[in-house]
Design goal:
The chain is an all-alpha fold. The protein is built from 10 helices and no strands. Helix 3 packs antiparallel against helix 4.
Length: 197
């Protein structure tokens, strides 16, 4: 008798995506529980992490992520009522989420819980939440159409993956990427502003 295959996070995410359950922020919260904030950070920040012109629509996602990161810092896990019924756009359901599932599945093959007990500590959540807030704010403040919001956004995406996979190595990699993004926004952003002046 073959041992029953343990469903991974990617499997659960794919099952939810293929189900008839509402594809809203509240829907994510109900299905994924403690990891729902990390998944929301991953989904929303994956858009500004792409080197594409989005016409400012990513600012809405970044505002939501910043607000939720503050709740994450104080240990809250409930979605504010004003955003509970915010739907995941159809294009994200059809393209972004399958892309995310594919990459989470490939990462799950070699990732493993590392220092996961540290992630459960309240002070770790405070520090991680602060990094997410600062990197998202940096992406929000990056000069429009400069592409400088990409790297700090990638930093948030990698941190979110670390929270989902309970792998502290991913979180540290995300912190390094986000910090690099801040330096680039400050240096290149000031250069772009001076050029326009």
């Amino acid at each position: 008798m073959k041992p029953k295959k343990v469903k991974t996070f990617a499997d659960n995410l794919e099952t939810w995506l293929d189900s008839s359950k509402p594809k809203t922020l509240l829907g994510i919260s109900k299905v994924f529980g403690p990891k729902s904030f990390a998944l929301i950070f991953l989904v929303l920040m994956s858009v500004p992490a792409l080197p594409l012109a989005t016409g400012g629509v990513t600012h809405i996602f970044e505002i939501i992520v910043m607000a939720l990161s503050l709740l994450f810092i104080i240990g809250r896990s409930d979605i504010p009522k004003r955003w509970q019924h915010e739907k995941i756009p159809v294009v994200m359901q059809k393209k972004t989420l399958p892309f995310i599932i594919k990459h989470i599945r490939s990462l799950e093959r070699f990732s493993r819980p590392r220092l996961s007990e540290l992630l459960a500590q309240w002070f770790s959540k405070v520090i991680i939440g602060l990094f997410i807030f600062v990197f998202t704010l940096t992406a929000f403040l990056a000069p429009p159409f400069s592409g400088l919001d990409t790297i700090p956004s990638i930093g948030v995406v990698v941190i979110a993956l670390g929270l989902i996979l309970e792998d502290f190595v991913f979180i540290m990699a995300g912190v390094l990427l986000g910090s690099l993004g801040i330096l680039l926004v400050i240096d290149l952003g000031s250069l772009i502003v001076n050029l326009f002046r």
